[in-house]
Amino acid sequence: MKFLGIIPARYASTRFPGKPLADMDGKSMIQRVYEQVLSTVDQLYVATDDGRICETVKNFGGHVVLTSEEHRSGTDRCYEAFQKIGSNFDVIINIQGDEPFIQPEQIELLKNCFSETDTQIATLVKPFDKNGDFEQTLFNPNTPKVVLNNQSEAMYFSRSIIPYIRGEKHTGWLKAHPFYKHIGLYAYRSDVLKEITALPQSTLELAESLEQLRWLQNGYKIKVAITHQETIGIDTPEDMEKALEYFRTRKL
Fold first, then answer.
1. Which of 25, 131, 139, 204 is the most exposed place for a label (fewest CB within 10 A)?
2. What is the pLDDT of residue 251?
3. 226 - beta bridge partners?
4. pLDDT at 252
5. Model's pTM, two decimal places?
6. CA distance 23 to 27
7. Which of 56-60, 98-102, 109-113, 219-223 has the lowest mean pLDDT?
8. Cβ–Cβ < 8 Å for 30, 97
9. Where are the alpha helices (H) located in the chain, listed in sequence order?
10. What is the CA radius of gyration of the chain?
11. In sequence order, what are the residues at sequence separation of 6 or more whose Cβ sits closer than 8 angstroms to the Cβ of residue 102?
């Protein structure tokens, strides 16, 4: 089975313009992500709509493909890139360009989901810390939650708290039931990627602003692997400062 890794990268981020090119201790963030996952896939490309990102990737020796400025999601950008790359890959892995601490083991978890021949789409979740601050975790709408069925498939994603624990105070929910947060990595069989990018936005997707709900609402199944490794997404310059502090601490 052949795996193609694609890292979608936009320059025009509202909260952090030029984010992929932000310096992380001497290398751009996009280079840090690229180097983290390069060994895990058969081929790896950055998919971007910006010439500056394109040149940066070429300068560090990476593969890059220029894509449209009109895409609403990384999934759409991945499909255009896959069409332009044109090789025969079985599975495309959509790797977030703003998570420079993604671990190769997490990519392997995604790949292993496709040992089951009926897997259409795969993603990752991480259990919430039972001793964590519920106000900063379960109540945070920027951290989508996931509920799973007994076959390790996603039943639903939500920015709200799911499931609701009846008869328990909110402060005890984390200890009363396992809660999972979504890690925004996706992998798709190539034929399924073609199909889901042709779907119109669904009512659930529009309600929660989560594109994966479009796939569930249209009957696609999303296999879920559980990781216990933390990732650090970077959405703002303040996030970058925290990430740099973490990065430098790891180097000591």
1. 131
2. 63
3. 125
4. 46
5. 0.93
6. 6
7. 98-102
8. yes
9. 29-37, 51-59, 74-85, 104-112, 173-176, 190-196, 203-208, 212-217, 237-251
10. 18
11. 33, 36, 37, 95, 96, 185, 231
